[in-house]
Amino acid sequence: MSEEKSLNFIEEIVEGDLSAGKYKSIVTRFPPEPNGHLHVGHAKSICLNFGLAQKYGGSTNLRFDDTNPTTEETQYVEGIKEDVKWLGFEWANELYASDYFEQLYGFAVKLIEKGLAYVDDSTSETIAAEKGTPTQPGKESAYRNRSVEENLQLFADMRAGKYKDGEKVLRAKVDMASTNMLLRDPILYRIKHAHHHRTGDAWCIYPMYDFAHGQSDSIEKITHSICTLEFVSHRALYDWLIEQLGIFPSHQYEFARLNMTYTLMSKRKLLQLVNEKYVDGWDDPRMPTISAMRRRGFTPESIRKFCDLIGVAKRENMIDVGLLEFCVREHLNKVAQRRMVVFDPLKVVLTNYTDKDETVRCEDNPEDPNTTYRDIPFSGELYIERDDFMENPPKKFFRLAPGQMVRLKSAYIIRCDDVIKDADGNITELHCSYLPESQSGNDKSGLHVKGTLHWVSVPHAVNAELRLYDRLFNTEDPASYEGDLKDILNPGSLQIIQHAYAEPALRNAKFDDRYQFLRKGYYTLDKDTSEDRMVFNRTVTLKDTWAKEQKK
RNA sequence: UGGACCAUUGUGUAACGGUAGCACUGCAGAUUUUGGUUCUGCCUGUCUAGGUUCGAAUCCUAGUGGUCCAACCA
Question: Glutamyl/glutaminyl-tRNA synthetase class Ib anti-codon binding domain: which residues (predicted)?
Answer without folding.
Answer: 336-434
